[in-house]
Design goal:
By secondary structure, the chain is mainly α. The chain has helices at 2-20, 31-110. The radius of gyration is 41 Å and the shape is rod-shaped. The model has no long low-confidence stretch (mean pLDDT 83).
């Protein structure tokens, strides 16, 4: 572990010194690396914000899920209630229709 730390320090120092040298055009060698590093840092920040946004959306969904389940349950209850009432009304209408048909049938036989 001690050799690793020493290697890390020596490597970092060598990289820093190397980045200070200039190429044949007079530009520092480390300048493109800085742009790459800044881009990487920006991408990392965007990624972190995206992860936080996904977590927030997930929490909102989990919070609203019980409300949605309750609404679906209430709608199902209303449909069942409506269906029960409709069936009673339809049976009553059929009964009255049958009675009317019988009454009309009896009246036509008398004439």
């Amino acid at each position: 572990m001690n050799k690793f730390a020493l290697g890390l320090v020596v490597g970092s120092a060598a990289g820093f010194v190397f980045s200070l040298f200039k190429d044949e055009n007079g530009n520092r060698v480390g300048k493109p690396l800085k742009r790459e590093y800044d881009g990487f840092k920006h991408d990392t920040t965007d990624f972190t914000h995206s992860i936080q946004s996904v977590k927030n959306s997930s929490n909102k969904l989990n919070d609203s899920l019980p409300t949605a389940q309750r609404a679906v349950s209430d709608i199902g209850d209303e449909v069942n209630h409506y269906q029960t009432r409709s069936n009673k009304i339809l049976k009553n209408m059929k009964k009255q229709s049958d009675q009317l048909n019988q009454h009309l049938g009896n009246d036509t036989k008398k004439n």
